[in-house]
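re: ur question from the group chat, yeah i did fold both. here u go
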Amino acid sequence: MWKSDRTPPPLCAGRAAEDMMRLALEEAKKAAADGEVPVGAVVVRGGEVVSTGRNRREHDKNALAHAEIEAIDRACRALGGWRLWECELFVTLEPCPMCAGAIANARLRKVTFGAYDPKNGAAGSVFSLFELPITHRPQAEGGLLEAECAEVLTRFFKDRRERKAQAGNGGR
């Protein structure tokens, strides 16, 4: 529900939505290059990028340093408030319960994610926080550029397993 007398800006659709997800994928690739689980996020208002974020848990030594949290924090600072009514979030992986809660608390209009997370997804895979009777329920849509988003994660974890196996074999 829109809680303003202003008309909200249009949501991204079609090609524009894919472009935003590609920006999130670039953030995910930066995270992977830093040895982080490759998840990237972008907050958008009226088709314009407000902020970006990527996983930094290892770097920051902080369990809260998820891509969505970083992007939301930066958007709040950039826009000067915690209510992101006019914004939407693009993220490469289905939000976890913590991030889904942050998305709802920030009052984002919509979250669009790429890959589904069958082990920890809180936007439909394991459960949907956004369908519970909470104060704010953003729209949620999954599967945008799903194959590309999943591939970044698959490659990261495959490379990580191979490095561990090599280390276990004396690096041979």
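okk and heres the other one u asked abt
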Amino acid sequence: MNAVRRRTRSGDGTVPFAPWTAARHPGDPAAALRATAEGFGGVDTTCAITGGVVGAATGTAGAPEEGLRRREPLG
């Protein structure tokens, strides 16, 4: 996987990869983010896209309790 990560550093790989990992783990945000981070491209960008897609589908019900406790306050 590192060979793929080194070769692909542009948006043409990011845009299709992030929704693909989200689709493979639609109800499990943690698994989707792990799969995305192990992939290629800019991890911050791909994880943000994946998290947005999976989070829109699951809402806070899909978020790990620890993550909800540690997040910054909203509002």
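fwiw on the second one: The mean pLDDT is 83. Residues 2-58 form one domain. idk if thats what u expected
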